[in-house]
């Protein structure tokens, strides 16, 4: 497992719409980074790289993308296929 400082999790927080019926809300819960998909239970994700996380209970991963200033602007959900989602402002 990749060690990262949980205080950096604030970079990832936000809402990321995959499509019209599915939005991933990424949020901190203490020192944990959580994902709340629309109409589903919350899932904890753990770091596997600086901007890469994996689900504990699902065969899925999330990669966060940054712009040239270092701000997180998008994620890609890897779950059987790749599902990109822009971060809502």
Q: Mind explaining what this structure looks like?
A:
This protein is mainly beta and 89 residues long. The chain has one domain: Lipocalin (Beta Barrel). The protein contains no helices and eight strands. The protein has an eight-stranded antiparallel sheet, with no helix packed on it. A hairpin with a 5-residue loop joins strand 5 and strand 6. It is globular, with a radius of gyration of 12 Å.
Give the tags:
89 residues, mainly beta, Lipocalin, 8-stranded antiparallel beta sheet, 8 strands, 55% strand
In summary, what is this structure?
The chain has strands at residues 14-19, 22-29, 32-37, 43-49, 52-55, 61-66, 72-78, 82-86.
Task: Write the topology of this structure.
Blueprint: E1 14-19, E2 22-29, E3 32-37, E4 43-49, E5 52-55, E6 61-66, E7 72-78, E8 82-86
Antiparallel strand pairs: 1-2, 2-3, 3-4, 4-5, 5-6, 6-7, 7-8
């Amino acid at each position: 497992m990749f060690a990262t400082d949980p205080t950096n999790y604030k970079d990832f927080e936000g809402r990321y719409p995959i499509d019209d019926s599915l939005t991933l809300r990424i949020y901190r819960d203490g020192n944990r980074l959580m994902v709340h998909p629309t109409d589903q239970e919350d899932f904890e994700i753990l770091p596997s790289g600086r901007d890469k996380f994996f689900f504990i209970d699902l065969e899925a991963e999330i990669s966060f993308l940054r712009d040239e200033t270092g701000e997180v602007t998008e994620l890609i959900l890897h779950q059987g296929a790749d599902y990109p989602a822009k971060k809502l402002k």
